[in-house]
Amino acid sequence: MTVDMLDKNGIAKRIAKEVQDGYYVNLGIGIPTLVANYVRDDIEVEFQSENGVLGMGPFPFEGEEDADIINAGKQTITTLPGASFFDSAMSFAMIRGQHVDLTILGAMEVSENGDIANWKIPGKMVKGMGGAMDLVASAENIIVAMMHTNRAGESKLLKNCSLPLTGVGCVKKIVTNMAVIEVTPKGFKLLERAPGVSIEDIKKCNRGRADY
Amino acid sequence: MINKKVDNISEALKGVSDNMTFMFGGFGLSGIPENAIADLVKRNIKGLTCISNNAGVDDFGLGLLLHQKQIKKMVSSYVGENDEFERQMLSGELDVELIPQGTLAERCRAAQAGFPAIYTPAGYGTEVAEGKETREFDGKMYVLEHAFKADFAFVKAWKGDAAGNLIFKGTARNFNPVMCGAAKITVAEVEELVPVGELDPNQIHVPGIFVQRIFKGETYEKRIEQLTVRQKS
């Protein structure tokens, strides 16, 4: 049976609905970066990049790139009117001090109590956590953007994370290609299904406690 | 005015030797002290511990020191984009301490500002906190992280003067300001060394008191790691 699931842009589009007027938002690498493309243009939002810029704009036009103006993914960017630059300590003061309203990041695994793993696969991939541990330890409002299952078709929503953790009990909401799920004291709660995805499809893919 | 200007790079790096601990400013390849790194490559000193957010790429930045096996230990938050790094780490030749990016910044700042340690929520409940003291404040758990101790901090600024005052450009600022004064000796290299009095005191990012030596970098490649552009419609 084929299920009509969302693609990466579909996930980003859905998450963009969570972005509200007046929000300062930190976007992680991957799907979260795409969210900026879908934020309503009748609201005011500023994007923070933890390497030291607030008020990030779109990518530069060819020939206008500047090696001194990049985002946390090391991509060349531009700034919008009202933007500011700052050092790394001040950047994480914004994050740790809860001045950033919304954090959107990717994950390899999320557990039913809101633990997240996204920085290390022992023996296979050890690139480091970058700013992810600071972000998840401090943010009040964290949305995880990810595919519902891994390449082997196994659920990334679990009872307990199997990979080394990035943070504990911090994720509140997960938007996948199949569903929007809230993390509650009782486990995962299904808020929405992607078009064409049934509750049965989602149940087959979940490993944690879930309330449908 | 206390003069911090040194005449050449050899004088700027005077005193570096094997088995020292160095801090390097920069995020990715943006704002890295290119000239200091090039000189360290020439000197070929070994057994270094390097505190730097990233480890460069295979043929640029700290990747050049890795290539010559000058580094014994890296303290970083993110080390992707570097095959030689990964090879040395997996083979056990290179010791690697991965720490959260905000913790890295704050351990530098603590050293700069005279704090022996700081409490941060980052990493609590993860392997980063293993073996470290933890403490509860207002119902939330925090990890005790110690200030770094380093012999030299190598930073790069856009403009500076002989008093050691520094101004950075764009996101090339990153870790550079928090490393100034966080080591026994801070060596600043700048793209433009301007006459004293030319920089507006209102616009100084790092006051000269945190800098012991300053010099004008000979050349800057300023390599872009991920060139990303949009098309004109």
TrEMBL record, chain B:
EC number: 2.8.3.5
UniProt xrefs under InterPro entries: 3-oxoacid_CoA-transf_A, CoA_trans_fam_I, CoA_transf_BS, NagB/RpiA_transferase-like
Originating organism: Winogradskyella psychrotolerans RS-3
Similarity field: Belongs to the 3-oxoacid CoA-transferase subunit A family.
Annotated protein name in UniProt: Succinyl-CoA:3-ketoacid-coenzyme A transferase subunit A
GO molecular function list: succinyl-CoA:3-oxo-acid CoA-transferase activity
Signal peptide (UniProt feature, chain positions): none
Keywords for the protein's UniProt record, in alphabetical order: Transferase
SMART domains associated with the record: CoA_trans
This protein's record includes keyword Transferase: yes
A Pfam family it matches: CoA_trans
